[in-house]
Amino acid sequence: xxxxxxxxxxxxxxxxxxxxxxxxxxxxxxxxxxxxxxxxxxxxxxxxxxxxxxxxxxxxxxxxxxxxxxxxxxxxxxxxxxxxxxxxxxxxxxxxxxxxxxxxxxxxxxxxxxxxxxxxxxxxxxxxxxxxxxxxxxxxxxxxxxxxxxxxxxxxxxxxxxxxxxxxxxxxxxxxxxxxxxxxxxxxxxxxxxxxxxxxxxxxxxxxxxxxxxxxxxxxxxxxxxxxxxxxxxxxxxxxxxxxxxxxxxxxxxxxxxxxx
Length: 261
Ligand SMILES: C[S@@+](CC[C@H](N)C(=O)[O-])C[C@H]1O[C@@H](n2cnc3c(N)ncnc32)[C@H](O)[C@@H]1O
Fold this sequence. Notes:
The chain is an alpha/beta fold and 261 residues long.
């Protein structure tokens, strides 16, 4: 399914500012809680991702990266993967780029997640992505620097979605593109099954394997709070993006938001 902007929001969600992990009273407390949460699960993050998604996550990263292959294969293209975590989306972009002149940077504010990414990229010689520890809401890059900015399953965790979008627009060149891959909430029978799995089964397995209680309860709650596609597309337009679309992946369990500066 492909939705462009302009449609009336079909889900009546409140206009949330950003992620609010339990106990966080303001944006800086929310960001701190998110960073600590990912740092605490970093050692088991990859394994849990593949188990809990039954390896579908690999298909989603590849599909999202393939969408941008024209930009990725442009000589000297500059690409940023925001909230890169342990780097799997960044590596998917690298594989699609082929072209070694494409400069790919992965940025995340959890040092522990980036350490994993760095470890995984050691075998990639000269074409390995560069890794930068940075907050997505205050990026250390000049205006109009990147041809493409992506984020996979990270944007939803920002403490302020509009500020996150404004920062993406700031660092994109004119005509540059952004791609935000994140979970959605499928409707109908698939939705009911998905909710059962996501809310009842996933938090139990996640807690058991990671040994940490909070993060896998926070995950379904954060997806439930995240703006519905039509609302998110409106926010993208407000931030200065055009040609905005949302494409459902796996019946809407995930989806890719795209926009052009
Ligand atoms: C669910 S993980 C996704 C990692 C990776 N992109 C993937 O697809 O597996 C979310 C990541 O976003 C990062 N993150 C959340 N808020 C951030 C922020 N404000 N700035 C930078 N990174 C952030 C977390 O540290 C975490 O590594």
